[in-house]
Amino acid sequence: MSLYTSHQNKIIGSIDQAVTNLTQILPLNNSYYAQCLEIFEANSDQRLGLLGWLEANIVAKMSQGANAILSVGCGTGAFDECILRYARQRMKQVTYLGIEPNEISAAEFSQTMGKQASNQVGVSVLLQKFEEQVFENKFDLILFVHSIYYLENRNDAIDAALKALKPGGELVIVIAPDEELNKIANLMWQRQMEQKSWFSDDVRAHFDARGLDYSEARVSANLNAKGCFGESTEVGRNIVDFIVQTQTDQLPTGLRNDIFDFLISITEGQGTTTCLPHPVDIFRCKKP
Ligand SMILES: C[S@@+](CC[C@H](N)C(=O)[O-])C[C@H]1O[C@@H](n2cnc3c(N)ncnc32)[C@H](O)[C@@H]1O
């Protein structure tokens, strides 16, 4: 059964066509991306839900000895600083490495995470793409939190991540299903990257194709869409630009209107606030 009404499917078709006809769709520049990401997250309860889940189900079950953790596409460290806090409450030693090609986010990661560095905690960041590094049997935990979409070859990246784990180590991939507001990012990315991005189904298909054991869980979340539509605010524009993954005001009017129509059609009213549902899936796979 289709998730969308025939009207919504019509809008999706129209966006798809308009995006295909564009010569290019510029990605957000590094500093604006980092800004929009944090504003998006500050207006969503997803990060909180994810952190609670990861603390209870992953960090709390890790050994209390020494652990090495890798965060791929760590961004500014706003997420990882919480994971590190949980980890150091439990573990004797923690080595936490981030990989991040956005120099503005990587610098912020160093600063944010560096505050927790001590004899017990080592923190570092590599300013590069994950694909540019090779690790072997090094990590107890590898996290991809909303970063796998941006990698060029995700099959290779997952294989490389499994190689980079110590035996018994765990790979955790946090990724959105191709539903609701992510539908828009997917349509934009196919033009920006000249290939389809990945969503939950693709991770599932990868693990199935490799014959790997894995489990998955879904965390539901809502984004506060106040200020996104109509008389929009600057915060609202940042949120929409992050959803669309480009500067929305640079798009042709027809396409922009379709995007707004679609987003408004999936917006849910909750009391005096309007919100956009954006569930997230967590995949985990242990290296034997
Ligand atoms: C949506 S953000 C998530 C940031 C952080 N994990 C969080 O949850 O707040 C995705 C991050 O992946 C990074 N990224 C993009 N391409 C990458 C690559 N090839 N290797 C590693 N990270 C990448 C982006 O720069 C961005 O900071």
Please give the oligomerization state of what you see. single chain
Helix residue percentage: 40-55%
CATH class: Alpha Beta
Structural class: alpha/beta
The total of beta strands comes to 10
One letter per element, helices H and strands E, the order comes to HHHEHEHEEHEHHEEHHEEE
Tally the helices: what do you get?
10
CATH architecture: 3-Layer(aba) Sandwich
Strand order of the largest sheet: 3-2-1-4-5-10-6
Largest sheet: 7 strands, mixed
For the record, the count of structural domains works out to: 1
The ligands bound in this entry are: S-adenosylmethionine
Q: In angstroms, what separates the terminal alpha carbons?
A: 37 Å
> Rough shape?
globular
Q: How much of the polypeptide forms β-strand, as a percent range? A: 15-25%
Our Rg estimate from Cα atoms comes to: 19 Å
CATH superfamily assignment?
Answer: Vaccinia Virus protein VP39
What's the average pLDDT? 95
